[in-house]
Amino acid sequence: MTPAARIAATIEVLEKTQSSNSPADEVVSAYFRGRRYIGSKDRRDISQRVYDIQRRGARLGWWTEASDSRATVIAHLALAEKTSGDGIKQLFSGEGYAPPRLTADEAALVGRLAGRDLDDPSMPAAVRLEVPDWLMDDLGEQFGENLEAELAALNRPAPLDVRVNLLKGDRAGALELLRDEGINAEPTPISPIGLRIGGRVNLHSSTAYRGGFVEPQDEASQIAALLCDTKADRLTIDYCAGAGGKTLALAASMKDGGPLVACDTDQTRLRRIKARARRAGVSNVTVKCITGGNGGGNGGGLDRYQGAAERGLGDAPC
């Protein structure tokens, strides 16, 4: 793709995220699934720009005084990427797969932003820190003098944590496998079964993931599963299993032995467990959809396990 075609795709993806109730990463993934012709390098460029724009949305909107995607991308090019006015006009040439030519208002915006920086001293604090204005007082009370540092951290890309599947190998082996594929990772500071990957990577195309050696899971979830201290001879219930992340961690602790029950009220999410379990080499999971509007009434269909389960995990806030 040409640079101009990437800009056009960025605008299209942003428009889809604004019109969708789905999380941005799901919208981006769906966009690329429907356009297999877009190469990996172009995907990285487009998705990185989309996420950068979202992290800077309040500041960009302050400059443009508009919410349309074209103006937002123009502002990002000028303020964050420091693209010259002539460079922006070339990207919006209207030729081939480039975005249509700049309108008179957009050309005026380009001129107004020339030489400016994204951050401006006159910006309200909520805009500069990328949070809704109505949240500022509560956040100030919670974080005090650490407010700016905390909000800056929240707006940075998070590292990717993965759990090593002990059914297929150890952490050292998984680390070596990732590094052989050019994926930089380090052991997580607390979880003994975790690795932390810096930067954006296409983990799902890696041998480590496709072979079931690692599974995306944040370190806190790994620790929660480890604290259950379950084993092969202990009936264990994951009461709010969702798509099964902690279920698979429990299965690894049980060495794929003994009864493990994964429950949730969402049948759609539960269906994902089977494919994930196959990839991980897990066979000891019984999947059960809990019925009843209040989470299952008397036991939610789990009455047969009453008094028998030795370990239970309830990630209820999730």
User: Roughly what is the average pLDDT, rounded to an integer?
Assistant: 92
Residues in helices, as a percent range = 40-55%
Largest sheet: 4 strands, antiparallel
The spatial strand order of the largest sheet comes to 2-3-1-4
Gyration radius (Cα, Å) is: 24 Å
Q: What structural class do you assign from the helix and strand content?
A: alpha/beta
- Separation of the first and last Cα atoms: 40 Å
- Compute the number of helices: 15
Number of strands: 8
Approximate strand percentage:
5-15%
Secondary-structure element sequence?
Answer: HHHHHHHHHHEHEEHEHEHEHEE
Number of domains: 3
**Rough shape?**
elongated
Low-confidence stretches: 293-297
Secondary structure topology:
Layout: H1 3-19, H2 24-33, H3 40-55, H4 57-64, H5 69-79, H6 85-91, H7 104-113, H8 125-128, H9 136-143, H10 147-154, E1 160-164, H11 171-180, E2 185-187, E3 194-197, H12 207-210, E4 214-216, H13 219-227, E5 236-238, H14 245-253, E6 260-264, H15 267-280, E7 285-289, E8 311-313
Parallel strand pairs: 5-6, 5-8, 6-7
Antiparallel strand pairs: 1-3, 1-4, 2-3
In words, what does this structure look like?
- The protein has 318 residues and is α/β, with parallel strands linked by helices.
- It folds into three domains: 3-123, no CATH class; 160-221, 2-Layer Sandwich (Alpha-Beta Plaits); 228-313, Vaccinia Virus protein VP39 (Rossmann fold, 3-Layer(aba) Sandwich), CATH 3.40.50.
- 46% of the residues lie in helices and 10% in strands.
- The protein has 15 helices and eight strands.
- The strands form two sheets. It has a four-stranded antiparallel sheet with strand order 2-3-1-4.
- The protein is elongated.
- The two termini are 40 Å apart.
